[in-house]
Amino acid sequence: MEWKGADYERGQAQGFWREFFVCFGIGGKSAVLYEHQVKKLGGAKGYIDSFIPGKLIVEAKSSGKNLNSAFDQASEYALALTEAERPRYVIVSDFQRFVLTDLSKDKVTEITLGSLASNAEKFRFLMEDAPEEIAEEREADRAAAYRVSKLHKMLLDGGLSGEALDVFLTRLLFLFFADDTGLLNVNGSFHRLLKKTPTSVLYGTLSLLFRTLDQDPAKGERPAALDEDIARFPYINGALFKKPGDFPVFDEKTRNLLVECSSLDWSTISPAIFGAMFQGILEGEFKTEGDEPVSRQATRREMGAHYTSERNIMRVIRPLFLDELRAEFEAAKGDATALKTLYDHLPTITFLDPACGCGSFLVVAYRELRRLELDIIDTMLHDKDLSKVDVGAFIRVRVNQMHGIELFDSPAQIAKVALWITDHQMSMEAAARFGSSRRSLPLAVSPTIKVGNALRVPWEEVIPATFCDYVIGNPPFRGKQYQTDEQKADLDIVFGKGKHELIKGRGVLDFVTAWFVKAAQYIEKSSSTARELDLFATDASAWGSRGNEAMIDIDAGWQNWKPTRVGLVSTNSIVQGEQVSILWDWMLAQGMQITFAHRTFSWANEGKGNAAVHCVIIGFSSEAAETKRLYFYPDLKGEPVETNPSNISPYLVDAPNVVAVGRTTPLSPVPGLRFGSMANDGGHLVLNAAERAAAIAADATLESLIRPFVGAQEMLNGDERYALWLADSTPEQRNRPLVVERVREVRTYREKSKRDTTRKLAATPFLFGEIRQPKTPYLMIPRVSSERRQIIPIAYCEPEIVASEQVFTLPDATLAHFGVLTSTMHNAWVRTVAGRLKSDYRYSAGLVFNTFPWIDLDDDLATIETTAQAVLDARALYPDSTLATLYDPNLMPAELVKAHAALDRAVDKHYGYKAEQSDIARVSFLFERYAALIATAAANAHDAAE
Questions:
Q1: Where are the domains of the chain?
Q2: Domain boundaries 310-476+510-643, CATH class
Q3: Per residue in 200-219, pLDDT tens?
Q4: Neighbouring residues of 161: CB distance < 8 A, sequence distance ≥ 6
Q5: What backbone torsions phi and psi does residue 628 show, to the nearest 5 degrees?
Q6: Residue 795: per-residue pLDDT
Q7: CA-CA-CA-CA torsion for 583, 584, 586, 592, nearest 10 degrees?
Q8: What's the CATH architecture for 9-127?
Q9: How does pLDDT run across 330-369, given as a tens digit for each residue?
């Protein structure tokens, strides 16, 4: 063993530790500093043997020396460091013994030289450098959430509730985190204070601590006789501990749980997850039954709010601003002037999240901005001796560049805390990278998080639009049928009512669309304010400040200014169905352009109960993007594929900015689609299979009057249902006993109705309430079809089959009509334009069928007719299989797959379509055709009017 005989301090220390660190991947020009000079509290100089800022101090002594005194020396060095540099771990050694101390947990491990290799796992922390780009929820996060949820319940049981409980728990969580990351002078200070404080005096100790944390010793605000255990805590500032707070009644169980929570490793918690986790706790997402946490609905969830995973946040901020800034950085690396320009720009960038919750979007955006700044500083100082540079002076990005609006006070407070924590994490990252950093305490500046309703609060009050670069977030989404009265009132404020209504037909819009409208108005406000100023004022005071620096280089004029850009998460319903024409017609009229978008993907979040929704991400502004970025998901739960379209339409495809507007008649010369017939009979004209059989057995003359009655369920799944169809019956036929009895029940049902139109139908009780039955063979299309199907099943029916109101009918349809409607081309249109019932496709006449751009039906359509018949023939090979089975993507017979492929080729050929076989490409093609047909129709209407 090479180091077995080593027994003196400096002679061999550096050589040993260099080789030791190499074992954990730390070597060469790493962040390990040797003989690092510090100025101790008394003013004397000291030298740390080995030092990894923010992580580790090593003190080596000669063999036989007292290692306790070595630890005291290391502790003294730690106190002399900035909070960002303070380590969590200390190793003291005489080369034969190694004592590892985790300061945050008061955990001490002693290892001999001979057992060093077998205990290598104890030093694994050395390998954990920078955090991963995407931090997903980990076991540590779940464990912390569970324990704090228990603490929350216990505090509630102890008499603390409402805002007092929220404030108290917020302060505790800040201290838990600060205690493990060097913010409290010595790691583990709060944990040790809790451990040594008896239950009987815990109230007084915490009350004194909280007051002390808001007292600045430099201004003489702390009493001289302050207890030493309290006095060592630093001044926090930031108003976090300013207000006097209420405390619960502490008992032994509460105290023990406090100590248990403080013993967790809070340094590993991601603030992005931390915020969502704590939000779930406050709103009851976590409750405990026995020893296990269980999930339940929470207030914000009920309001349509969904927590956002860091992965999804990155999907917003990368195309919105981060990739662009990173590209500028790469391009500027060899150009000192360009690099300085970018460096100066970062502190001026501002953000607003108008539905910020616990601040996850702001946290991740701020972290990435800080990391980019560190990379720029690294490049600027690459040839400098960092031991002689105060890197902290170069760090200028600050949390006051972040702004938010949040409905509830507790999440708003946590958003501030999470940003402060992130700021400190980035300072630690800087210290580990450069050896020095900016001090985190006292908290010098604060983010602006306004508590209020974002649909009622003017966003300009939070940050003027002209000074806001980016609006980001994940606003709550809620369909019209689930909106509360308060939410409907919010929408009235945004959209207006009656003759003052901003958008006609807005009653069908999702709750989230209000944020899109307010963001568009905010963008217009930024542009109009800028236009009013004409050119940048020569007096800088006319602009105020933006972030931490002057808003912009005045001499640069307008060339550097850009209107606010927006990136929002939304339910995918706003790019489907009737909402598209209602919302996006208005958005386009305001000059909004989609700059990037993620097509539908499956939601994932940091909350305990993942939201089961399909989402999109939409970036927009009043200024066109030089390169548009559109992401689609071959696997909705997987990673996206990026494309660069010439334009992104409101349907999130490469197509012109036109929307399909519902029509009363088809755009193309085809038969009209109509609903099936509605009985409105109280169920008395409808029979099941057994009732039909019994009726015919009793009276054979009824067989011609009892017809198959088919809706979507019967058509797709083969269920049997029948109707007493008397539309063409004679009085003699209607006089049969069963008919008389059932017709009498229909009359009674209709006469008792509260609806005048239904009561009028009592005059003809033997007829369906609404009769739209074709008299010739027709196509039957279900009004709702599963999203799992690539093709909506369509059936050819004889007029004897009565179609219910749950299907559409297309009378006088040809094989060519059947072929086109069953093709992938038409189904791609349906998937894009149709609305949804839950996640299933909701076919419609006005919005889907009537807007569909058909081929020229005057062409020779023999190929389409032949291949359409082949589809029907392939179905006929399986007479015992239902359409639902035949069109199940996992069960579809090979013959039917082949027949549909041939049909698609025939339809594509008639359209002249030669692009790739994807919905995105097909819909782009169809919208080009749709735009041309609309233009032709408008021109013809104009000519006719003249």
A1: 9-127, 139-294, 310-476+510-643, 660-676+776-946, 680-771
A2: alpha beta
A3: 999 999 999 999 999 999 89
A4: none
A5: -85, 145
A6: 96
A7: 130
A8: Alpha-Beta Complex (3.90)
A9: 999 989 999 999 999 999 999 999 999 889 999 999 999 9
